[in-house]
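Following the same procedure, backbone shapes were mapped to integers, yielding the entry below.
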Amino acid sequence: MKNAFSIVLLGAALTACGGGSDNDSTPAAPVTPPVVVTPPVVVTPPVTPATDAVTAASQAVAAQAGLAVIAGANADESVYDVAADIGDTWRITFDNAKKTFAVKVLSTQFGLVDRSGTFTSVTTGNITTYTGTDLSISVDARTRLLTGTVKLGSMSSNVSGTGYAATDVAKLAGSYIFLGAMRNASNGGSPFNPKGSLRIAADGSAQLCNGGVFNAQGACTAVSPQLAAENASLTLVRDAARGLIIARQGQQDFGIVHVHAGDRGLALFIDRYSRNDENVMRVGTMVAARQQKIGTELAGSYACAAPGISANIVVAGSTATITNNTAGKTHTEAITINKLGLGAQAVDFDGIAVFKDPADVPADYSMFMPVSSSMAIEFSTDRSYMGTCIKN
């Protein structure tokens, strides 16, 4: 454009100063105006926010496992299936427009019935906490993970579950580790806390190895001289009518399996119920996480809850600082990762961290099992129940 403007000005100057007489009959050459080129308008596409790494990982796990989001009646509803630690399965629905919740009983050992109410909610970071009458629930928007406490009838229960439903048992195949807590349904007696390995095959058959791991030949073997490994054969089938996965042992139900798409891989929340050889109804929960090593991702602050206890755990390096909010006391514990047991008796066991208070007797320690970036299961050997921990 600079050259074009220079040519026009030079032509104008020559015309003004002459260069021929007034009698020159030759007309001046017409001046052609420069062509003005309008630059194209560049449209910048809108910037799409980057997907959170935890969200992306969780969605990838859900897609690979063929999980489907549990649909509500409309776009305002979010729905979750949960395992209640009393041995029930409930479906919890939040209507975020009407600010109402509904608890629907899908399976109960206590004759419980549905109820509903209103809620208020507070969102901090990725966690939304719903509070209503006899209900306190936290949900991680990234993974559709739910945990909290709900009272139904006269029964108060810790609940954990998922906003996903499994549609293909074959895609649950893999190796898991688990922690559990169960007791007599009638009186809470004879507490039992299984822990060990779970292996699921593509045909839905599964092997539960309590107190042990599967060796290279696939046999359930004890991980410690103090533990007797017990093997149980299960079959996972889909109940299409209810949209649930049922685990069966022989001719009776073992429990209902809820499948969570954690960013660390699949996790299973199992509503455990069945009768033992003495025809006693046993109830509780088991949580299984896809087995993999724990790394530095364990670090952070966790709000933990178990029946009758509220606590906060801060993990930094090889130390856990534990505040018992109920008792108002704080102490520190040493952490060993990817081991089961203590000292010379500890064995390699990926996916478990052991917390140990040096002031306690050797038999007392805590097992900490992450199921996603936002949640871990905690079980102490001196207690007969499990707790859930939400990462702040």
